[in-house]
Design goal:
The structure is a single chain. It is built from 36 helices and 25 strands. By secondary structure, it is an alpha/beta fold. A seven-stranded mixed β-sheet has the order 1-4-5-6-7-8-9, with helices on both faces. The chain has a seven-stranded parallel β-sheet with strand order 14-15-13-16-17-12-18, sandwiched between helices. Helix 31 runs antiparallel to helix 32. The protein starts with 5 loop residues before the first helix and ends with a helix. About 0% of the residues have low confidence.
Length: about 1000
């Protein structure tokens, strides 16, 4: 038995570290509560009396408050992941509610915490806290209480098993606790999990893949901590009373996602630390500038939101005016959307320079979103100076700070607001040659010139963004990149040239332009895009963007693609300008129309899958579903980095990287195209050709776990030999880590021909991997879910010895007897188990088949070690197969359509709410009628058939019944496709 376990090495470490922060310890069994109590009511009453004079004068009044809070907690009994109740409860804790406790029943605001002095509150950390509800009882490893409220729940995992990680603890909280004992999470600020190597945290209802790490980037020393030391650092930074109160007040917010579902957002560590760096600089008041570089996609909009919320309450800021300044209208829309979605009070978006000036001169103490272009008319040499507002409590947060140097906009901002705090934020590093940017925002005392830095490598490490790869296309599609660069660089510097010289340069540039937009070249690239998109992008459920040279090229690409693909698949998004042609108007959307297009693009079930752009939607465009960008425009440095990072957003579970397909040779020389002083940025994108060289050694390393194993032997003999090579848990875990590298390379490179020589080995490795994978899905870190392309490869390479229809294995008495007598050895136990599972799944809800499913799970558990493939296991498995067949023979099989209606009924029963108690029968009946009227024999095998049925289903759900959940649509369509 290991001397190190999750209790003594992880749970107790966190307990002791938190106690060292001034928090008292009380074991869960010693708390003054019943197991069904969410709150420590005695502590809550004491805090109410201590913080509220009206309750101190009459302690019985505390019961009115407790009654209100208990009502919110009770509402969560039927609501897994109780985000709505959590939001309501937070509004009470943040003093947004009042109760008639004053004289003459006057409403007074109730205080639950001393926010000014966090240490003055009653803090307790408890281990092994049991919460029971009806027949369900759960025990939490760690709970941190403040004034009787369970604000934080944590789960610890074994630090010595390589395959076990924080993911297992996070899954326990998200998939089990929040669903089965939801009331306990109504007062929750955040949850965390750790295995003693890394600590990650999230909010109620947050998908596990979005949980973030905690790192102290402000700590002295450059060497990052690891293991226990890293967890200690995280505990001190995340779980100290000051941070917890900060998260409660300023660094969590509620919003509505694109599917109109309520979500709770919590700051990542870089947002928390970056925002607090801004706040501290304002608090000190001596230095009034700061430059923040947080890599593209790491959440600068939310950083500005969190900073604004804290700045508004900062006494030293004296009720400030906060300016959120962006460089484009679409970024204005994006950031305003972020703030509006979070329901930020006092938010104003200005439509004109005059309105902005009026707000400033009136001393509006609001959060004002505007564009840097509003300052373009400020006079730099005026006497007296063209000052709009000289107050000292104006705080300007400027997005994409490097853009302020265009047209001296930064100098005009400083002239208009001479005493304002100026903080510049950028997603790309600032070069030293951008001296004016450093002069406007930087401070010489900041390390490297940055008040806060979160690099490309940091964001990849933390899972905030994905890696980027690029593909080069055939040279026949390229233009001479150097000629383009030279021509346009000379053209840009042509102020001192004669008219004749300018004309000659214009002609040279125009000739290159004609080459780029040559009809035959556009047609060739459009055909390549269509082929690439339909074979590598669309099948994975992703979408794409075409970046064209200019507006005319956008139209040319749309015309060419429409001849190859359904016109509904693509659209153009570009801005209206003087050179716009009347026929382009339909592709020049206003802000409201553009929002509709972006929402459609983000909807996986919408037929719009390709956006054609040239300038719009290259910045300020957040679409996680965007995987591939087809680049046919010369871009450099900031503009290039911003553009390609549209594809780096996380989109679980299928997306592993963003892909750029380069038609102009932009990446032929990354040293030139990504010419930043921060050299690491040049590694922001990797050539897929380079990954090809990593495949062979990765496969060789994985096969190295099986010396002497004959991979040509199939059936149980071959499987037993492979499993015996992985004799213990440590070896299995090492193999899982090595296999995951192979799987990721296959995901990135497939279907390139380079993977073909290794397909057979990969199929064999995957079969072995699946056979030794823990049956309870423990060890999420190493034991990855098989990715889509891996499954595709496996499914297309099933060994001949395993029949395509496993029914003939499991359900045929003669075959069973042949196997048991030793006459056949070509049946895989895992395939038998899968066939039984498939049979049981066809009869969901039938008690007899539920019992069979439990038997199967118990059988897997009984033989969970390497002997799973032995004869006893197979005998019991085949007995279960016989019973499954017998159970099926006793029931009358329903027609496929009736099975479909049953599946749809189950689906909509699961998603219905109290407000729609009778909708299920109507929805299912309507879908059944619409699909029967639309379908035709073999419709699933035709693009037209699938499109028509999807349209009919979408009209029924989206329009008639207002059900606009993409996940529900996908599930409903899968049932329709299967049963109709």
């Amino acid at each position: 038995m290991s001397v190190f376990n999750e209790a003594n090495s992880v749970r107790d470490l966190i307990r002791d570290e938190v106690v060292n922060l001034g928090v008292a310890f009380t074991a869960g069994a010693d708390l003054d509560r019943k197991t069904e109590d969410v709150l420590l009511t005695g502590s809550v009453r004491a805090a109410l009396a201590r913080l509220n004079p009206d309750i101190a004068a009459n302690p019985d009044k505390a019961e009115q408050v407790l009654y209100q809070l208990s009502g919110i907690i009770r509402e969560a009994r039927q609501n897994p992941h109780p985000i709505t109740q959590n939001e309501e409860f937070m509004s009470w804790l943040l003093e947004d509610k009042s109760v008639p406790l004053g004289e003459d029943a006057e409403h007074v605001t109730i205080r639950f915490f001393d926010f000014d002095d966090p240490a003055a509150n009653e803090w307790i950390i408890s281990t092994e806290v049991t919460f029971a509800r009806k027949q369900v009882s759960k025990r939490f490893d760690l709970v941190i209480w403040c004034n009787g409220f369970p604000l934080i729940v944590g789960e610890a995992k074994n630090p010595t098993r390589p395959s076990e990680s924080w993911l297992d603890g996070a899954a326990q909280i998200h998939d089990d606790y929040e669903q089965t004992v939801a009331p306990f999470f109504v007062p929750n600020v955040f949850v965390f999990a750790t295995e003693g190597k890394e600590l990650r945290y999230g909010s109620v209802g947050m998908p596990i893949e979005k949980w973030g790490p905690w790192r102290d980037e402000t700590a002295a020393g450059d060497r990052p901590k690891s293991g226990i030391a890293a967890v200690q650092e995280a505990v001190r930074g995340l779980l100290n009373p000051v941070s917890v109160m900060d998260f409660l007040r300023f660094f969590t917010t509620f919003a509505t996602d694109k599917n109109h579902r309520k979500i709770k957002i919590i700051a990542r560590f870089q947002q928390f630390q970056g925002a607090n760096a801004i706040v501290e600089r304002v608090r000190e008041g001596t230095v009034k500038t700061g430059l923040i570089w947080h890599f593209q996609g790491s959440g600068k909009s939310l950083l500005m939101l969190f900073a604004s919320l804290k700045l508004k309450s900062l006494p030293e800021a004296k009720n400030p005016t906060i300016l959120i300044i962006v460089d484009r209208t679409d970024l204005d829309t994006q950031i305003t959307g972020t703030f509006n979605a979070s329901d930020v009070a006092g938010l104003v978006s200005t439509d004109s320079r005059a309105e902005l000036q009026e707000l400033l001169r009136a001393g509006a103490r609001k959060i004002i979103v505007t564009t840097i272009q509003k300052f373009q008319d400020v006079k730099l040499d005026a006497t007296p100076p063209d000052v709009w507002d000289d107050k000292h409590n104006i705080i300007a947060l400027v997005d994409e700070a490097h853009r302020t140097q265009e047209g001296d906009l930064g100098a005009r901002l400083r002239t208009a607001l001479p005493n304002a705090f100026r903080f510049g934020l950028t997603g790309t590093p600032i070069n030293k040659r951008d001296r004016n940017t450093f002069a406007l925002f930087g401070h010489p005392g900041d390390e490297g010139g940055y008040l806060s830095k979160y690099s490309f490598q940091d964001s990849i490490r933390d899972g905030a963004t994905l890696p980027l790869h690029f593909e080069v296309r055939p040279s026949s599609m390229k233009i001479d990149q150097d000629a383009i660069d030279t021509a346009f660089a000379e053209l840009a510097d042509s102020e001192d040239l004669s008219e004749k010289e300018r004309a000659n340069l214009s002609k040279r540039a125009a000739s290159i332009e004609r080459l780029i937009k040559a009809p035959n070249r556009i047609q060739m690239i459009a055909e390549d895009i269509a082929e690439h998109f339909t074979t590598k992008v669309e099948p994975e459920g992703f979408k794409a963007q075409v970046v064209a040279y200019d507006k005319e090229a956008c139209v040319a690409y749309k015309t060419a693609l429409d001849k190859i693909l359904d016109p509904e698949i693509s659209t153009i998004v570009m801005s209206k300008s003087r050179d716009s042609k009347p026929e382009w108007a339909k592709w020049e959307p206003n802000p409201d129309e553009q929002k509709v297009i972006v929402d459609r693009f983000n909807d996986p079930s919408d037929p719009l899958k390709i956006l054609i752009v040239t300038a719009k939607l290259l910045t300020g465009f957040d679409a996680p579903i965007l995987y591939c960008q087809y680049l046919d425009k010369t871009l450099k440095e900031h503009t290039l980095l911003q553009a390609i990072c549209r594809t780096n957003r996380v989109y679980p579970p299928r997306k592993t990287h963003g892909l750029i397909v380069d038609y102009l040779g932009v990446f032929d020389d990354t040293m030139k195209s990504l010419d930043f002083d921060e050299k690491s940025v040049r590694r922001v994108i990797t050539n897929l050709d380079e990954l090809e060289g990593q495949l062979e050694p990765a496969v060789r390393d994985a096969l190295g776990f099986f010396p002497g194993v004959d991979r040509t032997i199939h059936g149980y003999e071959g499987l037993i030999a492979a499993q015996q090579a992985l004799a213990d848990d440590e070896t299995k875990d090492e193999f899982a880590g090595t296999y995951s590298v192979v799987s990721q390379l296959f995901e990135a490179l497939s279907p390139r021909p380079v993977v073909n020589p290794y397909r057979a080995d990969f199929v064999w490795l995957t079969d072995v991997y699946r056979s030794v994978k823990p049956p309870d899905n423990s060890g999420w870190l190493r034991w990855i879910a098989l990715r889509p392309k891996t499954l595709e490869i496996i499914n297309s390479n099933i060994q001949v010895e395993i029949p395509a229809k496993t029914d003939t294995i499991v359900l045929n008495a003669d075959t069973i007897e042949e196997y048991l007598s030793g006459h056949r050895s070509d049946i895989d136990a895992e395939e038998i188990a899968k066939a039984i599972t498939a049979r049981i799944a066809k009869h969901r809800g039938n008690p007899k088949f539920v019992a069979l499913g439990k038997r199967l799970n118990a059988l897997r558990e009984k033989y969970s070690d390497l002997q799973q493939a032995n004869l006893d296991f197979l005998r019991e498995l085949l007995e279960l197969a016989k019973d499954t067949v017998a159970a099926e023979n006793e029931i009358e099989e329903l027609p496929p359509e009736e099975q479909g209606k049953a599946a749809l009924t189950e689906l909509f029963e699961a998603v219905k709410t109290e407000e729609t108690p009778i909708i299920v029968e109507n929805v299912v009946h309507e879908i059944d009628e619409v699909v029967r009227a639309t379908r035709f024999t073999g419709w699933q095998g035709t693009h037209e058939g699938e499109r028509e049925v999807q349209k009919a289903l979408r009209r029924t759900l989206y329009i008639k019944f207002k059900i606009r959940d993409a996940d529900v649509f996908d599930k409903a369509y899968s049932y329709v496709r299967e049963y109709y």
